[in-house]
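Treating backbone geometry as a discrete language has practical consequences that deserve illustration. No coordinates are needed to read the tokens, only the vocabulary itself. For completeness, the protein is quoted in full, as a sequence line and a line of structure tokens:
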Amino acid sequence: MSTHRPPTLAPSSQPSWRRRRLDPDHSLGLRLTLAATAAFLVLVPFALLALLVLGAWAPLHRLDTAVTHTLHDYAVDHPAWVVLMRIWSDVFAPMPLRAVALLLVIWLLRRGARRLALWATTTMVVGGLIGPLLKLLVGRDRPELLDPVARAAGFSFPSGHALNATLAAGVLLLVLLPYVGRGVARVALWVAALLLTVVTGLSRVALGVHFTSDVLGGWLLGVAVVAATTAAFTSWRAHAGLRPVQPARDGVSPEVERHPEDA
């Protein structure tokens, strides 16, 4: 008497989704997973900060108010400082930075680096749209001072200057890194990107038109957007069979210097 055993499934040669996410040799492997995770992790502190702002958390409000009044007292007593901060804030406002990004995109298109130009455009546009939307959703009023040294319209959180400075600095840094080698020029590029981001944000607090948490929120959101679009670009590189890169070291497309059509 013969017995029929239930058919068994042959072992699948296709690795599981989890293993593919952690496989450095897979086209959507370890590097993309880490980049996407980094973008998510940056969004977590931003989301927590936004919730604290929405909930009017007392310790955060006291800290914001103390910093604002301290810097405002200094600004009132130092008019030259106010002029310097106004100039910096105007020169590196969102619209001038977007104009610089547009020139960069045009330059990339003329070199035939269409995908890299699309990445730069997407980064600036996505961040530029998310910022005003979040301002409306949070609806936080700007600091109220008896003798303001500067004025700004609209809601406060997150800071548009801080957000767009972070976006522009990230785009310029990751596009230009392949051109500067590994010496003093690379350090200078990093320092310039950090100065653009940090000083632009601090200028808004110094002028009394933003709270410190507004600027911190702009920085966090900007980093999250750059990380997310960089993860997407890394995904395309993997699909295209291009060598893996470390964006903070190599830029997002080191081939653009020699072979723009690969970018």
Residues 8-14, 20-28 have pLDDT under 50 and may be disordered. The chain has one domain: 29-262. The CA atoms of residues 61 and 263 lie 46 Å apart. The longest helix spans residues 212-240.
